[in-house]
Design goal:
By secondary structure, the chain is α/β, with parallel strands linked by helices. Strand 12, helix 7 and strand 13 form a beta-alpha-beta unit. The longest helix has 20 residues. The protein binds flavin-adenine dinucleotide.
């Protein structure tokens, strides 16, 4: 009599080849371990199981969060709170490769790494975030390279360096922040940073000033609430001027705007942004952002290559946010698995967004929206009546903002 385990062993190969749960679907390579890419990798593995081989390629050893980094800059949060590892994803079966991807060949379905090795894929997910457009502002690249100016718009070393520069500011000194024309990542982010820096200055450098020069005609998110915070909490410290675009940074650090030159002790110059360099070949919208098919998140310029997060051309009213990058990571995981199985993708996806902003270290507010696929327009449309903004900033919402961050880190990174 054949023992049960022998039977299983004898049939094991045949069983593994069945087109049912044990079937091998293929290999998905995800490039970029930020909010979009980490979430995509996690959910591909969660929903695809052993049938899908998932490799996450990221140039950095660990994950550092932009959300909550403004609190680090203003000394309201320990930097270790925004740093996380990729161990949770690895424990779920995601293979992690620390490497720089330098080229993509969609026809051969390969990517090339900086060490000249290559990886092949059945589906590729790109989540490279943003890169900066420095060429239009003479002197800006040199000022950032030399450390004379900070952007702190990619969290990490710049976050800590800007914090250190603020700590070295003499009382009576001047901090300058410049905001680029929209679209840029995190529309409320610069105004939150301004509020938190102003809060810190009032307490630690009471004679210092923060000048916020905005290339846009007005505050880009939660306008009435930020304007109320500027007037109620930060008057006398924070001065906000719209329609002020940075034109040049001189060798002595003078920041030249259309109508004035500003000399400041600390320069936080946030450059204009575009899709991360890796996705640039697929950036078919103003040669800046990647246009995608919203049902599958495939690049219009390269079917088979999916793109999520800040690098894409956003749908109307959709901000570039960690929350949406996380939502798109789930959308692409589902779509890529369906395509690997030869199934149709979800014809009516829905994503949502919530962005909290602190106006002081103790008070925060939010904006929320829901976006549904519009088959006629082939884009996502904000659902009327869903979402909205806080009636006022509050301490209760500050607690919710902290919980939101803990949750999105846990969800994206399998913490
Ligand atoms: C100050 C600040 C505050 C913010 N606060 C909030 C907030 O409160 N809520 C919110 O929802 N959003 C917030 N955001 C926005 C949020 O950080 C971004 O929208 C989010 O990070 C986008 O995710 P992503 O995956 O597209 O890009 P990223 O998170 O930037 O990830 C991209 C990753 O790709 C990697 N990468 C790029 N190119 C390569 C390559 N060639 N090879 C290997 N790896 C590569 C990078 O190293 C990086 O890890 C904030 C942003 C800033 C700057």
């Amino acid at each position: 009599m054949i023992a049960r385990r022998e039977l299983i062993a004898a049939t094991g190969l045949a069983l593994a080849g069945c087109a049912t749960p044990g079937a091998r679907l293929g290999r998905v390579v995800v490039v970029g371990g930020g909010f979009g890419g980490a979430t995509a990798a996690r959910y591909l593995k969660l929903w695809g199981g052993a049938a899908v081989d998932v490799t996450l390629v990221e140039r950095n050893e660990g994950f550092i969060s932009c959300p909550m980094s403004n609190r680090v800059i203003a000394g309201a949060l320990d930097p270790v709170r925004i740093a996380h590892g990729y161990g949770g994803l690895e424990a779920q079966g995601v293979k992690r490769l620390r490497a720089e991807v330098v080229a993509i060949d969609p026809a051969a379905r390969t990517i090339r790494l900086a060490d000249r090795s290559s990886l092949s894929w059945d589906r590729l997910v790109l989540a490279p975030g943003i890169d900066f457009m420095l060429d239009d502002v003479p002197g800006l690249a040199a000022a950032l390279d030399s450390g004379r100016a900070m952007h702190a718009w990619k969290a990490g070393a710049q976050t800590l360096a800007l914090r250190r520069q603020l700590q070295a500011l003499p009382d009576g000194g001047v901090v300058l922040m410049s905001i680029p024309k929209a679209p840029y990542r995190c529309p409320p982010g610069p105004y939150e940073r301004a509020c938190l820096i102003a809060s810190w200055l009032r307490r630690a450098r009471p004679r210092a000033k923060l000048l916020v020069l905005d290339a846009n005609p007005e505050v880009q998110s939660k306008k009435a609430l930020f304007e109320r915070a500027f007037a109620r909490h930060h008057a006398g410290v924070l001065e906000y001027r719209p329609n002020a675009e940075l034109k040049e940074v001189l060798a002595d650090g003078t920041a030249r705007f259309e109508f004035e030159d500003v000399k400041a002790d600390v320069l936080n110059l946030i450059p204009a942004q575009r899709a991360g360099a890796l996705a640039r070949d697929f950036a078919n919208v103003n040669r800046r952002w990647v246009g995608i098919d919203w049902l599958s998140m495939q690049a219009q310029a390269a079917p088979g290559v999916h793109v999520v997060g800040d690098a894409i051309f956003s749908a109307p009213g959709m901000p570039k946010s960690a929350h949406l990058a996380n939502q798109q990571g789930k959308l692409v995981a589902a779509a890529a698995l369906q395509l690997l199985k030869g199934e149709a993708v979800d014809p009516a996806p829905v994503v949502m967004n919530t962005c909290y902003s602190y106006v002081t270290p103790d008070e925060a507010m939010h904006v929320a929206s829901v976006h549904q696929y519009d088959a006629a327009e082939k884009t996502m449309r904000a659902v009327p009546g869903a979402g909205g903004v806080s009636p006022a900033a509050s301490t209760a919402e500050a607690a919710l903002a902290g919980a939101w961050a803990d949750n999105i880190w846990a969800d994206s990174l399998a913490l």
